[in-house]
Specification:
Blueprint: H1 2-82, H2 88-106, E1 114-117, E2 123-126, H3 141-148, E3 155-156, E4 160-161, E5 168-177, E6 183-192, H4 193-201, E7 211-215, E8 221-225, H5 243-247, E9 253-262, E10 265-276, E11 281-288, H6 289-299, H7 301-336, H8 346-363, E12 367-374, H9 377-403, E13 410-415, E14 418-424, H10 428-443, E15 460-467, H11 472-491, E16 497-499
Parallel strand pairs: 15-16
Antiparallel strand pairs: 1-2, 1-6, 3-5, 4-5, 5-6, 7-8, 7-11, 9-10, 10-11, 12-14, 12-15, 13-14
């Protein structure tokens, strides 16, 4: 039916339009999220480089201050050595004087101890009290390095837990030698991790802080931030596998994305770094890509939420549009279909016939019409009531639809017990054969009443009219000619086919 075809096309159009708008909405959202993610990733890399730079600056500042204080104390103690052996008390007094003088001059916030370690690696003096406990520092990396390498002016020791105070510290150390370059021990300045992290907190938003690590030239840790990560040192908890890559970089400061293998599998880190060439320190700051992604999702919730609302609104709009159209299409279908037999009605025929005639005129192919009437239909109503008549009408309608199967074949109820079939591109012989087939099919119909008893046999009379349409009005006469042929079939005894102007007996 034409209305069904139109309904399918309109529904397809609605779905296509909805799909196009859905793709446009989701595409716009994806593009916006992609661009925002690229900006987020770039800003995260810049932030990691900035935090690494801040950490490196603070470490350098602490090392420079410690080196100045140690240099002053070194000169005083070397002068004392020139006049004789160095006593523990004298060493304590010199260390305390220079540390106090240095802290007062620069107003330093770093409160680490200054130590004197004798040539055997035993602690002889410290600035917080006298006399000092006799701790053994002979295995300290900075002590061994300064003792074995006279050419090294100073060195930086790794992060460790101080024997003197129990705090996490790293040391800046210088060798103590006399005018003959004989080794007389080491002066070391403690730099407390707590002082460094307190300084870092002034410049870094701790809610978005990275993990900051500073390494010495030989790869030992000098700084770990935030302080809670200190408990992971030595058990592989701090991943610094990217350190060599950063050292080989052509730029002293940059950022990159690094794949890091963990116990939970593979994950990515956003790493920023700064290399201090003078002190041979590498400071890196990194955040897990998953943390940045989580932050990005939180920042994008408003955009995603608005897009979802737009999607819901769009879906509701098209659902409503589809329902309205369904109601309209249903009303249109009801107006063009027969309520009892559920096939097209006469109004549908009046709508379809002009189009079929135009096609026949254009193609100059024969157009045939079958006019069908149920024989003795009144007896069905008289014998079985109106329900019996309705059963006969429905059965005939189904049989006609089963016989006229081609896409362009048109079957409708003309009115009462009469039906019409329009057969485009069908010759008179072909239409006649179809009519004969309809007769045979309807003869085989067996109806039963509500009690299961067989009803009377159903037969029909069929009139056939065929022509090659030259004019619109010529085609309109076909139905009248087929009707007249059907009347001739009824007068000839019913249950037969008559071709217009050529009665055919059976």
């Amino acid at each position: 039916m034409r209305d069904l075809s139109i309904k399918k096309k309109v529904r397809s159009l609605i779905l296509t339009l909805y799909a196009a708008m859905l793709v446009a909405l989701l595409g716009s959202l994806s593009l916006a999220l992609h661009q925002n993610w690229q900006l987020k990733l770039q800003s995260s890399q810049n932030e990691m480089a900035r935090q690494a730079g801040i950490g490196n600056f603070i470490i350098e500042h602490a090392v420079i201050n410690a080196a100045k204080a140690l240099g002053n104390a070194q000169q005083s103690l070397q002068k004392t050595l020139a006049n004789g052996p160095l006593s523990m008390l004298k060493a304590h007094e010199v260390l305390q004087f220079h540390l106090d003088e240095h802290n007062a001059f620069i107003n330093s916030d770093y409160k680490g101890l200054m130590l004197y370690i004798d040539p055997q690696g035993v602690l002889q003096a410290r600035t917080d009290h006298y006399p000092s406990e006799r701790f053994d520092f002979s295995n300290r990396i900075y002590f061994e390095r300064l003792r074995e390498h006279p050419e090294i002016p100073f060195t930086i020791g790794p992060l460790s837990k101080a024997q003197t105070t129990g705090e996490w510290v790293f040391h800046v150390a210088v060798a103590l030698r006399d005018n003959k370059n004989a080794f007389h021990g080491v002066l070391a300045q403690q730099i407390r991790l707590s002082d460094i992290t307190q300084d870092l907190a002034r410049y870094i938003d701790t809610s978005h802080a990275a993990q900051i690590v500073t390494q010495t030239l030989d790869g030992h840790l000098a700084l770990v931030y935030p302080p809670r990560l200190i408990t992971k040192i030595g058990n592989g908890g701090i991943n610094i596998s990217y350190a060599d890559f950063a050292r080989r970089s052509s730029s002293p400061q940059d950022a990159f994305i690094w794949p890091a293998a963990t116990g939970q599998g593979q994950r990515e880190l956003v790493v920023g770094f700064e290399l201090s060439e003078h002190f041979h320190l590498l400071t890196t700051a990194h955040r897990a890509m998953s943390d940045i992604l989580q932050s990005f999702v939180k920042e994008s919730l408003f955009l995603i939420g608005m897009s979802l609302l737009a999607l819901l609104f769009l879906t509701a709009l098209f659902v409503r549009l589809s329902r309205v159209y369904d109601q309209f299409a249903e009303a249109l279908h009801d107006s063009f279909s027969d309520a009892l037999t559920e096939i097209s009605n006469r109004r549908a025929l009046e709508d379809m016939l002009p189009r079929l005639l135009r096609d026949a005129i254009r193609t100059q192919q024969p157009l045939s019409v079958l006019f069908i009437d149920i024989d003795h239909f009144k007896h069905f109503n008289d014998d079985y009531g109106h329900d019996g008549g309705d059963m006969a009408l429905k059965a005939v309608a189904r049989a006609l639809q089963g016989c006229a199967k081609r896409p362009l074949d048109f079957v409708c109820r003309w009115g009462g017990e009469e039906f019409v079939i329009i057969l485009p591109h069908t010759t008179e012989d072909a239409a006649s054969k179809m009519a004969e087939g309809i007769l045979q099919t309807i003869r085989q119909i067996q109806l039963t009443d509500g009690h299961g008893h067989c009803m009377r046999q159903v037969t029909v009379s069929i009139g056939v009219a065929c022509t090659v349409v030259a004019l619109q009005r010529q085609g309109e006469h076909l139905i009248l000619n087929a009707d007249q042929a059907m009347q001739a079939a009824k007068q000839a005894g019913r249950d037969r086919v008559v071709i217009a102007h050529r009665p055919k007996q059976h």
